[in-house]
Design the sequence.
DNA sequence: GACTACAATGGGAACGGTTCCATTGAGTAG
DNA sequence: CTACTCAATGGAACCGTTCCCATTGTAGTC
């Protein structure tokens, strides 16, 4: 009977200590990386008792006493976005390598969910937070920051809040896109973005596009719209663009992967052939090479970004880490030129 | 000075109690859903003190005493697989709706990582586990099960272990695929799967395919191979299939989304036009409608699966839940017929 | 041989909650 | 008026750790 009960519940440190005939302090030492302070005998006795009882230290109790939960939180605006998942993958691997666990929270771009999740993460006393959401910093987020929880922002900046930032070099990315499109002969451009209010990087890209487009003497415009609600307005925008008079080849530039998907769908629905119009996207996706004649993209180094974010975070957790000034890490995208920007209709002259 | 310190650390229940001039028992009651046992006065006093101190109960401490962490674990074999993410999304939403949080662990199909993650989840005393990995149940998993942690398996079964199962009706899925392909006139089929050793559902699909193919008098074969390491062997298999003599139209059937992606790439690399050969996949992906002429798929109801898994799990957590016999919930896929199975070359006779 | 230094170990007080049980006081039935 | 019930509240033990502070024993120093 007692063995049946024992099997149904995790053993405690006290039970192990008892089994091994030592004090719980010693068992605690054994499991907290202080094994070298214990004699050989003691180590083997504890090891065998622990194995026999199938003991694992209770992380809750540990966190309670020591004040560190070994938990990192991550806030993701849209988990269905492959880019976010790829970055998350990187973050998770890096965390695990350092002995931390990652709690992922998806907000579906909903501020209410974001607040809920933040409250939750706070309740678990996470030691750091990677953020890929948050248009406006919520009260919860500010509190978390005030309490000294290190923050890393992915591809956004949150003015007032002190936090490290990791992401793409957005200005350079737009420049690269324009360089590429110009060099291929496209001179009339439409930039399409998801709502800029939700992410500062979108804002930067859009502004940079407008500024550079003008500077380079290219025609066209930039547009920000919500994909969910305005599928028809996207089609309308594309139609207008295609119909607008211009003697230079037209191309569409998509601000992120979601836009690329929506635009590709819209073009297909319209029966527009890729190549008849140029198409280029920021964010590489599985299928960009598969849609004939291949969609040109600027790929983000997702794994690097994830790793860098985690490293920045964990450095803050080290003894003198908090003091350092905020880091800004910006990566260059990689151009993957494909057929969709290859042959502007009128450029063969 | 003291206020500065106060801001940098979370308030405790004792501080709130002190501020409000009540006992910590009352504060505890207030935050544990026993507000109706407190007088109006008390409630407002606690509320204001808590707000002033910005108090949130420490979930670690809660879990320690009460024994429930309010944490659900999820083991995912491959987080980069959109299907897994979609299901995870469903699981997470359902958890949150019931007041649980989800800790997601990605194993990258690596048994070692799986064991690590399981140890970790055990350390946090998760109350339930959703599993989308595990070819063979590891020792850690068995222990978790023995200790009474409810398990839900997604699309796999783990013989010896008692657990609920949620997933696709695999046999029916294969039948639907064969029905569709036959009805379109395809009579020579190649079924491609990822290694069946890693998931029982793959095993079932593959066996069912072979059995039904023969039963229906169709020619062809089924093949199981690893996508990572054997990209070339995939191409070889396809080449062989295409080269094999047959007077009936040929079609490829892909066992899951990863295979569909790899196969589509391989076909493109070979310069094979979709339509010259039939193509059909299990799992719907963003881009299946975009690759001309559109790839026919059998879509899984990912959201339903996620929700069902969570519900099964949480029911086990209820007072009498553990006793119920294991559930088996199987969903029907949805056929999305597209151009890739539309016009077998020789069927126009 | 007495004293110090140090390595090896154990005892017990936190950590921040929950929960059982006691206490108080007001209302109510006899 | 007394006894009893019940609602409202508080005291204190406990959950499973960590960690500070003894305590012991042994070796090294003069």
Sequence:
């Amino acid at each position: 009977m007692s063995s049946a009960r024992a099997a149904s519940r995790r053993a405690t440190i006290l039970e192990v200590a008892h089994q091994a005939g030592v004090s719980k302090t010693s068992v605690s030492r054994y499991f907290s990386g202080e094994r070298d302070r214990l004699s050989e005998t003691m180590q083997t006795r504890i090891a065998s008792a622990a194995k026999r009882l199938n003991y694992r230290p209770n992380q809750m109790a540990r966190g309670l006493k020591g004040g560190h939960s070994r938990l990192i939180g991550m806030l993701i605006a849209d988990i269905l976005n492959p880019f976010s998942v790829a970055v998350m993958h990187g973050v998770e691997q890096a965390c695990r390598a350092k002995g931390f666990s990652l709690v992922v929270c998806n907000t579906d771009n909903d501020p209410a969910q974001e607040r809920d999740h933040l409250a939750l993460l706070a309740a678990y006393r996470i030691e750091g937070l990677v953020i890929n959401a948050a248009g406006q910093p919520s009260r919860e987020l500010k509190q978390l920051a005030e309490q000294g929880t290190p923050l890393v922002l992915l591809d956004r900046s949150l003015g007032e809040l002190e936090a490290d930032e990791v992401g793409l070099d957005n200005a350079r990315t737009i420049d690269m896109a324009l360089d590429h499109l110009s060099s291929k002969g496209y001179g009339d451009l439409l930039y399409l973005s998801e709502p800029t209010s939700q992410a500062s990087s979108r804002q930067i890209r859009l502004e940079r596009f407008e500024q550079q487009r003008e500077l380079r003497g290219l025609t066209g415009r930039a547009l920000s719209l919500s994909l969910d609600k305005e599928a028809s307005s996207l089609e309308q925008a594309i139609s207008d663009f295609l119909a607008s008079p211009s003697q230079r080849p037209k191309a569409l530039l998509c601000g992120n992967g979601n836009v690329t998907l929506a635009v590709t769908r819209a073009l297909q629905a319209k029966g527009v052939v890729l190549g008849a119009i140029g198409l280029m996207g920021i964010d590489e996706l599985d299928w960009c090479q598969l849609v004939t004649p291949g969609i040109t993209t600027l790929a983000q180094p997702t794994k690097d970004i994830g790793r860098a974010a985690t490293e920045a975070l964990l450095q803050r957790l080290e003894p003198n880490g908090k003091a350092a000034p905020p880091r800004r890490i910006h990566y260059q995208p990689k151009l993957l030129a494909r057929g969709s920007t290859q042959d502007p209709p009128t450029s063969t002259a």
